[in-house]
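User:
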Amino acid sequence: MKNYTITVNGNVYEVTVEEGTSTGAAPAPRAAAPAPKATPAAPKAAAAGPQGSVAVSAPMPGKILGIKANPGQAVKKGEAIIVLEAMKMENEIVAPQDGTIASINVSVGDSVEAGATLATLN
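Assistant: Predicted structure:
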């Protein structure tokens, strides 16, 4: 048997492969417990001023199409802050709670990954 470490989409798995003769049929796969993930490097953000205490993150990877709020602007829970295009659909990223925009960390045209901080609120 040989052990391998395989990384798929950022998830690290330990896999054991049996050596021997093949019967022509693939054996039933066994679920392997994922190994602890290495912490990915933090994405670079173009911080625009001081950071707030509440982060507004991208729910999916995409491209920033528009910014509907400015730093210092008061927003209500559910109010659109940023428009994110993902899979040819426009998604409004909304304020998770009432507050004031502390920073907008992206610009129109930026590509972002899932989990990237788009804005912060106070």
